[in-house]
Write a structure and sequence with these properties.
235 residues, mainly alpha, Ribonuclease iii, N-terminal Endonuclease Domain, Chain A, Double Stranded RNA Binding Domain, 2 domains, three-stranded antiparallel beta sheet, 12 helices, 9% strand, globular
Length: 235
């Protein structure tokens, strides 16, 4: 198990805890707590609190940056910024995994590199800072490490609709087969390739989309399939 080094981590994030117990709790996974002592607190409650603090701080930042945007659009941007995938990448960039206290089983299965575990630990760290120093240092941490420095510059991507997620939610809500994606073709030179992707939901429908990346083509295919399914359902 990695040795916890509070001083190094505190210097890295630019915040010195008055009570390092908050930091240790944030870095304690439930697998470690179960092995060491039934009375040892793990980071699950801090994770719960950190999720709420993070959502609040991100909401305020988005409302300040985009005062004329409707609630639905702001919610979409917030969802991207607090998604486990994004938080997990931030945690990996901070190398948060090497500070975690993990149980032997979690250690053996590569827990220090699991995005979901890293995202949870990052939320717990936000809460630990809030518990120790209040909202101001928590806001500084979130703005420095979690929020992009220039939200306006990435607004197009930040607020774009995730059609793959929307399609998946629609299929689940209507008890239909989950969508599957496959690359149908690739054309053009390596630096300007165009991908054609097919999205299919079992026997319920199929659609294609194209783009200069697989991700873009998948989004286009998901959008077309979602629109086709909704149209067929309303006929």
């Amino acid at each position: 198990m990695a040795k916890v080094s509070p001083e190094v981590l505190q210097a890295q994030i630019g915040y010195e805890f008055r009570n390092t117990q908050w930091l240790l709790e944030a870095l304690t996974h439930s697998s470690y707590a179960r092995e060491v002592s039934v009375s040892l607190r793990d980071n699950e409650q801090l994770e719960f609190l950190g999720d709420a603090v993070l959502n609040f701080l991100v909401s305020v930042r988005l409302a300040d940056a985009f005062p004329n945007y409707p609630e639905g659009k702001l919610s979409r941007g917030r969802a991207r910024l607090v998604a486990a995938e994004h938080l997990g990448r931030v945690a990996l960039q901070l190398d948060l995994g090497r500070y975690l206290r993990l149980g032997r089983g979690e250690e053996k299965t590569g827990g220090r590199a699991k995005l979901s575990l890293m995202a949870n630990a990052l939320e717990a760290l936000v809460a630990a800072i809030y518990r120790d120093g209040g909202l101001r240092p928590a806001r500084r941490f979130v703005q420095r490490f979690i929020l992009p420095s220039d939200l306006e510059a990435i607004a197009a991507d930040l607020f774009s609709i995730d059609y793959k997620s929307a399609l998946q939610e629609y299929l689940q809500a209507n008890h239909l087969s989950p969508a599957a994606y496959r690359v149908v073709s690739e054309a053009g030179p390596e630096h300007r390739k165009i991908f054609m992707v097919e999205a299919a939901a079992g026997d319920h429908g199929m659609a294609r989309g194209s783009g200069n990346s697989k991700k873009t083509a998948e989004q286009q295919a998901a959008r077309s399939l979602l629109e086709a399914l909704r149209k067929a359902r309303n006929v």
